[in-house]
TrEMBL record:
Superkingdom, natural source: Eukaryota
Source organism: Gymnopilus junonius
Residue ranges constituting the Peptidase M20 dimerisation domain according to the UniProt record: 275-366
Official protein name in the record: Peptidase M20 dimerisation domain-containing protein
Family: Belongs to the peptidase M20A family.
Classification of source organism: Eukaryota, Fungi, Dikarya, Basidiomycota, Agaricomycotina
Length: 508
């Protein structure tokens, strides 16, 4: 068999850590960049499977799509008919040393809320797929320029990536923020990236206002517009290009289903995207089928093999995919078939052997049918490492000021922000990171990556929840920039995780 492969490999050596932690965890895994199986992106990016399958464990239902961060039991979820909760500040948090700063942040976001709402609806009503977020790119960069930020369009060679910067004084710490923009094919903004886009914008604008009120503080804000989260690994490309090197910490958020007035600071799954193509030989299916080599048969065998593999995988592992083709006719032996698979595991180290088992099924199908095979392994998404100090600081703020309940349930979702949160020896700069998810109201069975969630992401209640989370992130970010003791603990938590990783890595 003529065996062709490109971009082989999943990860380098990645170290295990405990999964399903009930408390925010430090960065606890490492990547050896010189391993021959280091992940790299494919030349052609493919859309992920649009909808995952719900699984139930310990009365908590998780959804499987790329970035579904649903949390809480199904019975607790915020249903859209319920009256939106009030997010007015209740108790002044001891986590913000200067209460006037909290007032500035909150008043700024309240004042800009209507403009941000318009911005969100514009992006929502013009959905664009990964690496094609041109309308969102132009709309968001124009908005940031109008608000006094220095903007770099088409950042680091990506047509729809961008960077907005505000610097005050000389030196000081640098806070990073992310805004996602891409939608899903056939569903639009069914993962709420319009809300993620404006949350990043809101955090940056509120932080700028807070810094301007304290002109003696030297600091920098960097907001990145990150394309292609839905399978293209835009943040991984930016990370490799050095977009995060200047930052001392990075924050973002993500909407999901969950109980009203709630946020989640748990981890996510690692994920590997695999595209396989089978090349056969066409023939007349009725006249001389023996002259053909059936590529569709190879795809069916691979699908059956992976289906049987599911019986022997752990309950917290996932593998799901679709079959594609071109010019198929019932009276012609198909000479080409294509499949796109996503493999997931709680940690990157668990993902490595799992991906190998999936590949065995794909390669066996080519052997069985005599087809040639081409496997493209795309950018891997690492499991999310929430910085424990950032997570606790954020939870304290949104709990005391806005009455939000913070949980730390891990989900089977995956995000390319996980790569940003990984520490050395991952070969590209990673840093302390925070990625809370937050509940918005939807209908039953209307979680991320469903048409119902696209509708939910346009609602007034979802916008209100987003603004509240943006306030909490902005106040947390302000502490990173101005509170020396807090940042020291943030960095110590990150370094402690790196040291634990190095110790574990020595066993390999």
């Amino acid at each position: 068999m003529d065996h062709q492969e490109v971009q082989t490999g999943c990860f380098g050596y990645l170290l295990a850590r405990k999964a399903r932690s009930k408390a925010p965890r430090n960065a606890q895994a490492a990547f050896r960049g010189d391993h021959p199986q280091m992940a790299s992106r494919a030349d052609v990016h493919q859309n992920p499977s649009p909808l995952g399958v719900a699984e139930k464990t310990d009365e908590i239902k998780y959804y499987s799509p790329c970035c579904c961060f649903s949390f809480g039991s199904e019975s607790e979820r915020w249903i859209e008919q319920e009256v939106p909760p009030s997010y007015s500040p209740t108790v002044i948090s001891a986590s913000t040393d200067d209460n006037s700063v909290a007032t500035i942040v909150e008043r700024t976001l309240d004042k800009e809320s209507r403009k941000l709402r318009v911005l969100s609806l514009k992006i929502h009503d013009h959905p664009e797929l990964m690496f094609n977020e041109k309308y969102a790119h132009d709309t968001l960069t124009n908005f940031m320029e109008q608000n006094g930020f220095k903007v770099i369009r088409r950042y680091l060679g990506l047509d729809t990536a961008w960077r907005a910067e505000y610097a005050q004084g000389k030196g000081g710490r640098v806070i990073g923020i992310n805004s996602e923009m891409d939608a899903l094919a056939g569903m639009g903004h069914a993962c709420g990236h319009n809300l993620i886009a404006i949350s990043g914008v809101g955090v940056a604008i509120a932080l700028k206002a807070a810094l301007e009120a304290q002109p003696n503080i030297s600091a920098k804000i960097i907001l990145l517009g990150t394309p292609a989260e839905e399978g293209g690994g835009g943040k991984v490309i930016l990370l490799e290009g050095g977009a995060y090197e200047e930052m001392d910490a990075c924050l973002m958020c993500h909407p999901s289903t969950g109980p009203p007035r709630s946020t989640n600071i748990g981890s996510s799954n690692a994920m590997q995207s695999i595209v396989v193509e089978y090349f056969g030989h066409s023939a007349h299916a009725g006249g001389a089928p023996w002259e053909g080599t059936n590529a569709l048969d190879a795809a069916f065998i691979a699908y059956s093999g992976i289906s049987m593999l599911r019986q022997q995988i752990k309950p917290d592992h996932r593998v799901h995919g679709v079959v594609e083709g071109k010019n198929w006719l019932p009276n012609v032996i198909p000479d080409y078939a294509k499949m796109h698979w996503l493999a997931r595991a709680p940690t990157s180290s668990e993902l490595i052997p799992f991906v190998k088992r999936v590949r065995n099924c794909l390669e066996a199908a080519a052997i069985a049918t005599g087809c040639k095979i081409k496997i493209t392994v795309e950018n891997a998404y690492f499991d999310l490492h929430q910085n424990s100090v950032l997570a606790q600081g954020f939870a304290d703020i949104v709990g005391s000021r806005y009455g939000l309940e913070a949980t730390s349930d891990s989900t089977t979702a995956s995000t390319d922000f996980g790569n940003v949160s990984y520490g050395p020896p991952y070969p590209f700069a990673a840093l302390p990171a925070l990625h809370p998810s937050f509940a918005i109201p939807t209908v039953p069975n209307g979680g991320n990556h469903t048409p119902a969630f696209a509708t939910a992401a346009r609602s007034e209640a979802a916008h209100t929840a987003t603004i509240t989370i943006a306030k909490g992130l902005a106040l947390t970010a302000y502490r990173v920039l101005t509170d020396e003791g807090f940042f020291t603990r943030v960095k110590a938590s990150f370094e402690q995780g790196k040291a634990a990783d190095d110790k574990q890595h020595s066993r390999f």
